[in-house]
Design goal:
With 291 residues, this protein is an alpha/beta fold. It has a single domain, classed as Rossmann fold (3-Layer(aba) Sandwich). It contains nine helices and twelve strands. The strands form two sheets. An eight-stranded mixed beta sheet has the order 3-2-1-8-9-12-10-11. A hairpin with a 4-residue loop joins strand 10 and strand 11.
């Protein structure tokens, strides 16, 4: 009887998540509404994790993984909140170059959840200052769409917010970037999330020594512009998977069979398409079987 109730509860939760993530995809096309909800979703724990791909962590880590989590491109900290809500109490290192977001959002998360360290700079393949291009609407930053590639931002704005282009400006903002491998941090990451809007391959390049040494599980946002670069950087040590929410399983992909699956950041037809790829070490004893 208890098993039956558990199965029923799990089915209801999956249905709830499916409806939630579908609604989120619809809201994203309205920048003002999406910004208002996005900036306040941290107050509603039942909405976490805010991206369905994070649910795969329960498949990958049946037991608590040893090591810290890196949240690269933390933004306002929703990924890190999701880790905590899902039950992971590992130390989290947040990397976010936007000082305003660190002060307004991340320090509050740090006080609430503990065991979190904030680094107010971005990660790249060089130690340098670089211009981040951030779209604004009505004087408010659409901060989750900022990128160091101005063309990438313009394409995203035109694709996402086609009906609001006359109200959106793209503003340049200087930020600091560093190579992870130069930081000499005494950490052994178990999991790394990277979401830096088309700049992901540079972040990976700057931490490649650490990745080869510790071979963490990595969740990296999919972008057509840099996927092959990321794939090439990690193919020796990691295999690539997508999380199929409909059947709650991981599917191994490669350059040849990727076209057979629906995963895209901008898929308007299938609202549950994957937006991220999991890079999973070829040999990692603490991971559960992926079948």
């Amino acid at each position: 009887m208890n098993y039956e109730l558990t199965t029923i509860n799990q089915s209801y939760m999956r249905l709830f998540h499916k409806i939630k993530y579908s609604i989120v995809r619809k809201i994203e096309t309205n920048p003002s509404l999406n910004l208002m909800i996005y900036n306040n979703v941290r107050h509603f724990k039942f909405l976490f994790p805010h991206e369905k791909d994070y649910l795969a962590l329960k498949l990958l880590f049946k037991n608590k993984p040893a090591g810290c989590f890196l949240d690269v491109g933390t933004n306002i900290g929703l990924s890190s909140i999701g880790f905590r809500v899902m039950g992971f109490d590992n130390k989290i290192l947040m990397f976010e170059p936007n000082t305003n977001l660190c002060e307004k959002y991340l320090k509050n998360i740090q006080r609430q959840y503990k065991n979190i360290e904030i680094f107010n700079f971005g990660l790249s393949n060089k130690n340098e200052s670089k211009t981040l291009y951030v779209p604004e609407i009505g004087g408010k930053e659409i901060h989750y769409n900022g990128s160091f590639d101005e063309g990438y931002v313009r394409d995203m704005v035109e694709d996402y917010y086609a009906n609001h282009l006359d109200r959106i400006e793209i503003k340049p903002k200087p930020f600091t970037l560093k190579r992870y491998d130069d930081l000499a941090l005494n950490e052994a990451p178990a999991f790394i999330k990277i979401d830096v809007e088309g700049f992901d391959h540079f972040a990976v390049e700057g931490m490649i020594d650490m990745v080869k040494k510790h071979q963490p599980v990595m969740l990296i946002e999919f972008n057509e512009s840099n996927f092959e670069a990321v794939y090439s950087q990690l193919k020796v040590t990691h295999d690539v998977y997508i999380f199929d929410y409909d059947i709650n399983t991981m599917i191994k992909v490669n350059l040849d069979n990727m076209k057979n699956y629906k995963f895209s950041k901008r898929d308007k037809e299938y609202t549950l398409s994957s937006r991220n790829l999991f890079y999973i070490p070829k040999n990692n004893g603490h991971l559960s079987s992926l079948n």
